[in-house]
Amino acid sequence: MFTPGNPLIVQSDRSVLVEVDSPRYDEVRDRLARFAELEKSPEHIHTYRITPLSLWNAAASGMQAQGVVATLAEYGKYDLPENVRRDILDQMSRYGRLKLVKDGADLFVVANDEALIAEICNHKAIRALVAARPERFRVRIEPAMRGPVKQALLKIGYPPEDLAGYVQGERFEIALRDTSIATALPFTLREYQSDAADIFYADGAAHGGSGVIVLPCGAGKTVVGLGIMAAVNAQTLIISPSTVAARQWIEEIVDKTDVPRESVGEYSGEVKSIRSITITTYQTLTYHRSSGAYPHLNIFNEREWGLIIYDEVHLLPAPVFRATADIQARRRLGLTATLVREDGRADDVFALIGPKKYDVPWKDLERQGWIATADCTEVRIDLPEAQRMAYAVAEERLKYAVAAQNPTKVDLVGDLLAKHEDDTVLIIGQYLEQLETIAQRYDIPLVTGKTSTAEREKRYRELREGTARRLVVSKVANFAIDLPDANVAIQVSGTFGSRQEEAQRLGRILRPKRDGGQAHFYTLVSRDTRDQEFAANRQMFLTEQGYRYRILYGHEVAAFEPERPAKGRLA
User: Is 499 contained in some domain?
Assistant: First the structure.
C-alpha cells in the first residue's frame, strides 16, 4: 500500500525517514521522539533509528508495543516492514520479562519462564553473579550485586524491571512552602512538574523510586526534585555539575521548602559539610589520589540517604557509575534536559539510575508559555585567506580548532551585539584565547574555569539584577546556571559535535521572560570546514525538540533584523 501524503518511510534496517516539509511533520516528530533516536537532520529528510534502548525506554514509560506499531503504520507511506514490526514487539516485550524482587532479606531475579531463567544463569556474564543454583522460576543473587546484575542483563538484551524496593533512609521531614521567600509570591508545582514527581515516586511503590526525568532547561527540574524530596521525606544527597550549581540548589531548598539553612550542607572543593540535605559535585566525587583511590566517594555511605539526586545525569562520570552500582537499594533520581551521552553510556544510565520516567517536548512547554520562544540562527562565514591555508595544511585533529577560532567571528559578534543593544546577551565559546579577545574588544566581563566561584557568582548576580547586560562565558556556564533574563546567546565555538552541549547552551536563554519577549540563539560557523560539520551534528538536538533554524551567510547579517514579536507577559 502507498499513501503519498504520509511523511514516514520505515526501512527494514529500522531506520525511519521523515519528510520535514510534510504538514504532518510536527505531530509525527513528537510521537517518534518517544521511541526512536534522531541520527541525521539535513534540510528536507530527517533520519531516526529504532534501537533496543529507545524501545525499552518507551516500554518503561508505559508505551505499548502495539501503539508504536500503530504510529508507524498511521504515518507511513508504505506498509511497515514485517521484520521491523516483529522486532518492536519482541524488544518491548523483553523489558520486564525478568524482575528483581525481594523475599525477606534475599534478592531474586524472577520470571514466569523456566527456560529464560536457565538461559541467563548459563550466560557467562551472569553466571559469576548468581549466589545459588537456580530454582524453576527464580535465581538468588547477592544484594550487593543488584547493580551489576542489572547492567549484565541489559547488555544481553533482557533489561529487568527492578521491583526490589528501597531502604527508606533516615527520615527527615521536608515540606514545600506556599510562598517563595525570595519573591514573596505564591509557590506551587506546575501541573507537569507535579505529574513528573508523582510518576517518579509512585506513592512509594516498588515500581517507582528510580529513573530519569527529562525536562528543558528553564522548565524547573530543580523544583521537580524538591517535590520528590518532599514526597520521600528522607535525608537526601544531591550531586550537581559545579559548585555554583550546588549553591543554587541550596538557595532553592531554603527558598521553597521549610528546611532550615543549617540542615543543608555543601560538600565541594571549598567546603566539606555533611548535613541531612547535602549537595556535592561530580568534580569533587571524581577527585582521586595518585594511588587511584577516590576518597570522596565515601560520601555515599556517610548517611542513611533515602534519596540520591543526579542533576544533569547525562554528565555522570565513570567513577560515580561504579558507586551507583553499589547503592541500588536507595531511591535514585536523574534530572536532565537530554538523555544523549557522547560517550555511549546511555545504557548504564538506564541500568543504574533507571529508565526514562517522564519527559515533555520543549515545544509543548513553549506553547504553554513555561519556557521562552526561541529563534535559532546559524551564521556561516568564510575563513580569511591566511586561516584557509592554515586549515588546509593542519593535521586532521587540529582542523576544528583552526576553523572554530576564525577571527572573523570576533567582528561578527560586534554586529550582532549592535542588533541586540537592549537585550541581555551571553557570548559562549570553548577556546579561551578567542573568548579573551572578544571580552577585551567589547569590554565585557569574562567567566572561565579560572574564575573563582565568588567572582562567577558575582557576574551571574549582576546579570540577574540587570546591572550588567553582557557576559562572555566558557563551557563552565553550560550547566545549571539560572540567568532568567538572558535572552540572547551567541555561540562562537563548541565542543565538537556535542548535542548535549547544544541543549544546555540553548537552555541558558529559555527561562520565561518577565516581559514575554523572545529568545535568540546564534551559532557562528566557518563555512566548508569541520566547524560546519560539527555544527550540523549539534543542531540535531534543535531538530529533536522541534526548533527550525535559519541559515545566514556573513554578508547577509548587515541587512538581517531579529524577529521582535509583540510582547506580553508569559503565563
Answer: yes
Spatial contact of 162 and 150, defined as CB atoms under 8 Å apart: yes
d(CA 339, CA 346): 7
187, 178 contact by CB (below 8 A): yes
Which residues lie across from 281 on neighbouring strands? 240
* 3-state percent breakdown (helix, strand, coil) of the chain, nearest 5: 40, 20, 40
The one-character DSSP state at 202 is G
Residue 167 lies in a domain: no
Q: Do 229 and 327 reside in the same domain of the chain?
A: yes
Neighbours of 446 (CB within 10 A): 18
Residue 428: count of CB within 10 angstroms of its CB: 26
Query: Can you give 488-537 as a three-state secondary structure string?
Result: EEEECCCCCCCHHHHHHHHHCCCCCCCCCCCEEEEEEEECCCHHHHHHHH
pLDDT digits (tens, 9 = 90+) for 267-277: 998 889 999 99
Cα separations (Å) of 351 from 50, 241, 279, 324?
19, 21, 24, 10
pLDDT tens, residue by residue, 126-185: 988 888 888 999 999 998 899 999 999 999 999 999 999 999 999 999 999 999 998 899
Degrees, nearest 5: CA angle 363-242-336 = 30
Residue-range definition of the domain harbouring residue 230: 191-360
